[in-house]
Sequence to fold (338 residues):
Amino acid sequence: MSAPPVTPALRLRPRSAWHVATVVETRRETPTAARLVLDVPTWPGADAGSHLDLRLTAPDGYQASRSYSIASSTPHGQVVLAVDELPDGEVSPFLVREVRAGDQLELHGPLGAFFVWRPGESARPVQLVAGGSGVVPLYAMAAAHGVAADTTRFQLLYSVRTAADTFFADELAALTGPAFGLDVVYTREAPDGWPDAVGRLTRETLAARTVPAVQRPRVYVCGSTGFVEAVARWLQELGHAADDIHTERFGGI
Amino acid sequence: MTHHLDGNVLAGALSEIFTSDVTAARARCAGCGQTSAIAEAMVYTDAPGLVARCAGCDQVLATVVDAGDRVMLSLAGLSAIELRR
Fold:
């Protein structure tokens, strides 16, 4: 007798839908960003790395929608976002400055099957590379990896302006251990006594602080468009195959 | 220089058209023949709608325009899409 057919993973993924979220808490994440904890009773759960579209409607009916990575979420429970305020942004200044506990927001998600990590899918090591607020979906992957007690080697290289600008600093520090390594590059100002040079991420630092191409890591890069394109180009120059590099760009207005 | 994002940002708009997420699907550019995930296309969001261009040759692959009660989709720049069952 043949083995029963394996259900494709696709069918098990949470389906996207529109949800009404109620803001439970909002607090400062960095000098320019806020962490939003949302109560979403209809939320189906989400793969680590996925995002949602958040839609605001003005009293005159004007609507604006933007995509935000999901930092963490629980089915039928809470969704946590960390939103960086973009200068001249249309949605992010409202989310960072104006939103209060009790406010309601419209969400469409979870979205995206490309920039996701699922436990048990591969034994290859995973290298995460974050620029600024691009760490949010990568933090979600690292946290999911920790919760699953997955022993696949995970490493995060995080390029950030200063210690104060670090997203999920305490949570990331708590995740470090034998299966998760964290490397930080400060681009503007490092804490006192920091041993490494301060400045923008270079190809040399990337080469020295990431899993080498010979180990065939699966690589996830998230940051501004310029950051992602520079890092993806360097990774290919360092021998990583294009298909092993997953990228997600953010920015815009 | 115009700012672009990438095909990940299409997931919401396309989920209202396709039954499963297509951003992870591989697609072939009708201009240069390059095959890559939809998520890797360059996406311009400052047009009246979303415009996806090939990261290899800049050809317009797809456009999605949300007109409230209607959505207009063009996939004219794609010669094939591989969808997972």
